[in-house]
Design a protein that fits this description.
This protein is mainly alpha-helical. Helix content is 48%, strand content 0%. The protein is built from 5 helices and no strands.
Length: 159
Amino acid sequence: MDEMRRDRDAEGRAHNARPRDGLGRPLPYGSPGVARQPEGVVRTPAETLAEAQRLLDAGMPFHAHEVFEDAWKSGPQDERELWRGLAQLAVGLTHSARGNTTGGARLLRRGAGALAPFAGSAPHGIAVAGLSEWARELAGRVELGPVVDAAAEAPRLRR
């Protein structure tokens, strides 16, 4: 591809400005897409959870994943695995809604495993045990092959 035509950010890193649908799938250039989540936003845990819940409820788990990823990268070291696990749950739901049953189930289980160390503490009011149970149950259903509706399957993040 011609270097002049590639999407680049101000530092020259490759950046895909191609429009995306609500599940993060690329659409043809010029198509109306869903606005992307801005990257690198530092939010409080409450703001992170509220924004991610809004996106999950809207059937946009790919975008919720990006919100969790910001928290994972900017949060305290002792909470990184928590936010990474939540991001994996969102990506697992994304893949499941896209029809990728193997990847969806695997990421849902991986996210549940990442949350396991936090099950007894419920940091920031996060329903860790409930989310882990939800993820394992959904992974089992996803492996049977049906594509899931991301909005209908959206988990509740807080107790």
